[in-house]
Design goal:
CATH architecture of the largest domain: Alpha-Beta Complex
CATH class of the largest domain: Alpha Beta
Radius of gyration: 28 Å
Length: about 600
């Protein structure tokens, strides 16, 4: 306990002793600590923050390839250092890098003579293959200016090496390696774990290839899932080999042989000998090499966030093209991802702005809630009904619900190695009857009608034949609605959509062949198409949603969820209650 010492009252009587419990004392301590730290952080951040950066002569754009690539950059958090130092806080200053900032910076670097070249620094930026291709294509366009690119890293991941091969010189740390090992997909299956604890997942789905639920009733990949994974892995690997081979002057056979040697475990000297890199250089010595390329020792470097703060010329046009970023899992409510109730509010803002003449949706999503996807689809149709053309630009992933919200657009762009399609529906209902028996939990109750206790019965006793039939019929209706939306949007028959649906994941290039997307291209192509469809001669871009307020990061302060707990929560998410999902399973390509 914490005691506050006695003092006398004004009339000379002893003041009663008051006590504050340990919890109360701790709360007061942390509140005061955090308030003081926050105020200091706010003042210091305000003192040193710069709203814009002046671009000087002899500048190098230092594109740091580390952290995690996201579609839309967020504001730097002025409380980051404070939050990470608060006792018992699990906050980390996550190093997210906005693809929008990278592309904007590369364009600026190409066109502004003050920027001499680009230094690709680092090789562990987490991203999708399509995200890597978007950056690589932008760098190839940059090179048409005649300016140089130099790459350096301690180690190169596959995606990052694919990007780095555009460089005039690829440098590697003498202790490093290039992960040129081929690509693989590995999945975790929970069936035997759940059997041990007495939980059976009752699965309802439509689509032979709808594999998101397989980890809960299988112990290995189905033939269908193996087929689709092999198909898109081969497509991505083929793109990597073609691009790397052209840049490094290596044949397909040579690249295959190097991958079979598992170059990630070979010495740095072997990487040079194999032709994967040009020079071995410690990171601390890169300045010397950059001086040679700059032709001076007085060059300056600007990182992505700093260069993004350089003021760009602003359009004075009245007409606007809105760009709305839709990234993450789709849900009806929540803190992260594509939250339908928030997205609908954004659509209302767009609809109220009479100056907005076209809308571009940048979609990067594995899907999620089928109902939330339908709500967003409907909102897009209302926008179109107001004579505002809608164009979709698919990022690394626009599958299942991600395709659902895309299919109704006037025009769809995808990267050749975007993962899309996965047109299918599934439902999951946990049966905990065996778990109840194990722990001795009894369930009883009364109801007014035959199926009033349907949900409880399915969860605590398991579905009978009649209940399964009713639930499957609901899933079938969901699939019918999904495929009808796709058929309407793509101007084909519903039967055709079902023939290419079945939950199958397609690469963007194949999706174009079968009519699920219109054209290969990036977000710039999508913006140009939106301008064309709206018949605009001049325009300005406006972006949605608003960047996350840094103060919202305060909510993360006491989130002490470990990685192991997050995995358990993933299982719990599937087991918590009956739900209908239009979602692709989580795929990690390595």
């Amino acid at each position: 306990m914490i005691f506050i010492s006695n003092t006398q009252t004004p009339d000379g009587q002893p003041r009663p002793r008051r006590r504050i419990g340990c919890l109360g004392g701790c709360l007061i301590f942390f509140a005061v600590y955090f308030l003081c730290s926050a105020i200091i952080g706010w003042i210091m951040g305000d003192m040193f923050a710069t709203s814009s950066v002046t671009l000087e002569d002899k500048t190098v754009y230092r594109l740091q390839l580390k952290g995690t690539l996201v579609e839309q950059a967020q504001e730097d958090n002025p409380f980051a250092s404070v939050l990470s130092s608060v006792p018992y806080s699990n906050y980390t200053n996550t190093d997210n890098v906005g693809l929008d900032d990278i592309l904007s910076n590369i364009r600026l670097a190409k066109n502004d003579d003050k920027i001499l070249g680009i230094w690709l620094d680092g090789g562990r930026l987490a991203m999708t293959p399509a995200g890597a291709k978007t950056i690589r294509d932008a760098l190839l366009d940059f090179k048409t200016s005649g300016k140089w690119i130099v790459a350096s890293a301690k180690n190169y991941g596959a995606n990052n090496y694919y990007i780095a091969t555009v460089a005039d010189r690829i440098c590697l740390d003498p202790t490093g390696a290039v992960d040129w090992n081929g690509l693989s997909v590995t999945k975790m299956y929970y069936t035997r774990v759940m059997e041990k604890i007495g939980v059976e997942m009752q699965i309802l789905k439509v689509g032979t290839f709808k594999s998101a639920v397989e980890p809960f009733f299988r112990t290995s990949m189905s033939d269908a899932d193996r087929e689709q994974n092999k198909q898109f892995l081969d497509g991505i690997w083929g793109e990597y080999k073609t691009a790397v081979g052209a840049s490094r002057h290596l044949t397909d056979a040579q690249l295959e042989a190097l991958a079979d040697r598992y170059m990630g475990l070979q010495s740095a000297k072997e990487q040079v000998k194999a032709g994967l890199v040009d020079t071995l250089v410690y990171g601390q010595d890169m300045d010397s090499l950059l001086r040679i390329y700059c032709g001076t020792k007085d060059f300056k470097t600007l990182t992505t966030s700093k260069l993004a703060a350089v003021k760009r010329p602003e359009s004075k046009a009245k007409d606007k093209v809105a760009v709305l970023y839709l990234e993450g899992e789709i849900s009806e409510d929540g803190q992260d991802g594509i939250v339908s109730q928030d997205v609908l509010k954004t659509f209302k803002k767009i609809a109220k702005d009479d100056d907005i003449k076209a809308l571009v949706l940048r979609v990067n999503s594995p899907g999620g809630s089928a109902d939330a996807s339908e709500q967003i689809w409907h909102a897009i149709q209302k926008i179109k009904a107001d004579s505002i053309p809608v164009v979709v630009s698919m990022g690394g992933l626009a599958a299942s619900g991600g395709y659902y919200i895309s299919c109704g657009a006037d025009y769809i762009y995808a990267e050749p190695i975007t993962l899309t399609g996965s047109i299918g529906i599934f439902g999951t209902i946990p049966n905990v009857a065996k778990l109840r028996d194990k722990i001795g939990l009894d369930i009883d109750g009364v109801s007014t009608n035959q199926h009033a206790d349907l949900e409880a019965n399915m969860i605590y006793k398991g579905m009978n034949a009649e209940e399964r039939a009713m639930m499957q019929a609901m899933i079938e209706r969901g699939y019918d609605l999904f495929t009808s939306r796709c058929a309407e949007g793509r101007h084909v028959s519903q039967d055709y959509i079902k023939s290419v649906g079945e939950g199958r994941v397609w690469l963007g290039a194949k999706a174009k062949e079968i009519g699920l997307v219109d054209e290969m291209g990036n977000i710039d192509n999508a913006i140009a198409k939106a301008v064309e469809l709206a018949g605009l001669e001049s325009y300005q871009l406006c972006y949605y949603p608003d960047v996350v307020d840094p103060y919202e990061e305060l909510l993360k302060m006491f989130d002490n969820t470990t990685d192991e707990e997050k995995m358990i929560l993933k299982v719990k998410e599937f087991c918590s209650k009956p739900r209908v999902m239009a979602r692709m399973d989580e795929i990690v390509i390595k």
